[in-house]
Amino acid sequence: MAVRKIYIYPDAALRRETEEVKDFDEDLQALAADMFETMYASDGIGLAAPQVGVSKKLVVIDYQGDKNVLVNPVITKEEGEVTREEGCLSFPGIYEKVLSPEKISVKYFDENGKEYERDLEGFTACVFHHEIDHLNGRLLIDRVSPMKRAFLKKKMSKKAAEE
């Protein structure tokens, strides 16, 4: 296992379209293990493959002891809306109130190819939704008001230029 680099906004890797995973092999399991280690090292609760520069439909989540590897996840149903404060490892130090579904239904495979279908609600639904958004190139910044988005883009671009 290894801690990988987390790509920070506005890196183009975060906007790339991800590819469906076809092989449930040792490479996939090693990538998932690296992503868990990377997420834990950054005190995160979820991490999507594009955040470590890999354009695959793969997410890892460990929220309140519910550890999940999501391969090719698809949200099949969304219900209700709620505003919650979210953060993102690709936007370090930024926490914003965003609108997200209250409940979702999601289908996915684990790293061994076993299929799951879950109904989630509350903050757990928010975490799954946020990470699956990453697989579609959708980011935290896309779920805030246009004025807040312009402010965050400027702030993150300035921060990237300083590093």
TrEMBL record:
EC number: 3.5.1.88
GO biological process: translation
A Pfam family annotated for this UniProt entry: Pep_deformylase
Reactions listed under catalytic activity: N-terminal N-formyl-L-methionyl-[peptide] + H2O = N-terminal L-methionyl-[peptide] + formate
Cofactor(s) in the UniProt record: Fe(2+)
Highest taxon, organism lineage: Bacteria
Active-site annotation: 131
Record GO terms (molecular function): metal ion binding; peptide deformylase activity
Keywords attached to this entry: Hydrolase, Iron, Metal-binding, Protein biosynthesis
Record's signal peptide: none
InterPro entries: Peptide_deformylase (IPR023635), Peptide_deformylase_sf (IPR036821)
Iron recorded as keyword: yes
Broad EC category: hydrolase
Gene3D superfamilies: Peptide deformylase (3.90.45.10)
UniProt-annotated binding residues for Fe cation: 88, 130, 134
Co-factor remark: Binds 1 Fe(2+) ion.
Function: Removes the formyl group from the N-terminal Met of newly synthesized proteins. Requires at least a dipeptide for an efficient rate of reaction. N-terminal L-methionine is a prerequisite for activity but the enzyme has broad specificity at other positions.
Family that this chain belongs to: Belongs to the polypeptide deformylase family.
UniProt xrefs under PANTHER family: PEPTIDE DEFORMYLASE
Protein name as annotated: Peptide deformylase
